[in-house]
From TrEMBL:
Gene3D superfamilies: CAT RNA-binding domain (2.30.24.10), PRD domain (1.10.1790.10). This is PRD domain-containing protein. It comes from Lactococcus hircilactis. Signal peptide: none annotated. One of its GO terms (biological process) is regulation of DNA-templated transcription. SUPFAM superfamilies: PTS-regulatory domain, PRD, SacY-like RNA-binding domain. Keywords: Repeat. Residues 65-170, 171-282 form the PRD domain. GO terms for molecular function: RNA binding.
Length: 284
């Protein structure tokens, strides 16, 4: 195998003898190595192939941003979960979990704290994943000197749930798909934009809309505890995205008699702002 890219001492993008790209991990596998050099096969502990180009592109996009200590920590968390749940995870989890944790750390350091509207459901229905993820939040805070809110445990737990049983939360597929399509149309028309459906921001947004759609169909779209400070902070910082979300909330009230709480509105606003920022960045 030939090294294409070095993420840190323990994670590499390589090319095998058949010119197929792979993601490999192993302690010290990239130490004092350079792109173009061969990999010591005896040091490889994990090797992943890319079944989809979008997964490969997402991995490169997110791992190029990650500090070395985040890469190693995420690998350790997944390794522990594999032992705990007797499960082998695919490369998509390394991408999605890294992306979520990195973004959570970034917005926490920016003073933006989000209460996860799924925390109660995750704690109840996925108790083992939630309990382990609470430990992970504490470990992340300790190792990376950050103060993630305990609610992040629910989001982290869902990554392991989805990796174990894909689409486990995506019942009522037709109804949810229709709702997602309508919301995407609202955002597209408001901003006059075309989506890059392979982008990380678009995938994050659609994933969140899946969860929102499931809660709406189950009658659990509203939270009992609302963070007015976060809501006002997000509205003030992102006025255009907030106006776009007002159109979404109007649509949900008229079409489904659903009223979103301020936490959900703030969360949608942040997703839409990230989506718009990414599109604008690619234009420049």
């Amino acid at each position: 195998m030939r090294i294409l890219k070095i993420f840190n001492n323990n994670a590499l993008l390589v090319e095998d003898d058949d010119h197929h790209e792979k993601f490999v991990m192993g302690k010290g596998i990239g130490f004092k190595k350079k792109p173009g050099e061969s990999v010591d096969g005896t040091m490889i502990q994990k090797v992943f192939s890319f079944q989809k180009k979008s997964v490969r592109d997402s991995l490169l996009e997110i791992y190029e941003q990650l500090p070395s200590e985040e890469i190693d920590l995420i690998s350790d968390l997944i390794k522990e979960a594999e032992t705990e749940f007797h499960q082998t995870y695919f490369v998509s989890l390394y991408v999605s979990l890294a992306d979520h944790i990195h973004y959570a750390i970034t917005r926490t350091r920016e003073g933006i704290e989000i209460k996860n509207p799924l925390t109660w459901e995750v704690r109840k229905f996925y108790a083992k994943e939630f309990a382990l993820s609470r430990k992970y939040v504490q470990k992340i805070n300790q190792v990376l000197d950050v103060k993630l809110h305990e609610d992040e445990a629910a989001a982290i737990a869902l990554h392991f749930v989805n990796a174990r049983q894909e689409n486990s939360l995506y019942r009522n597929t037709y109804e949810i798909t229709h709702l997602i399509d309508d919301i995407l149309k609202i955002v597209r028309l408001y901003y006059h934009i075309d989506y890059d459906e392979d982008s990380l921001s678009f995938q994050r947004f659609v994933t969140h809309l899946h969860y929102l759609g499931q809660r709406i169909l189950n009658g659990n779209a509203s939270n009992q505890i609302e963070d007015q400070f976060l809501f006002k902070q997000v509205q003030r910082k992102y006025p255009h995205a907030s106006q776009c979300v007002e159109k979404i909330t109007y649509y949900l009230r008229q079409s489904r008699s659903v009223t979103l709480d301020t936490d959900e509105i703030a969360y949608l606003t942040l997703h839409i702002q990230r989506l718009f920022d990414e599109i604008e960045e690619k234009k420049s």
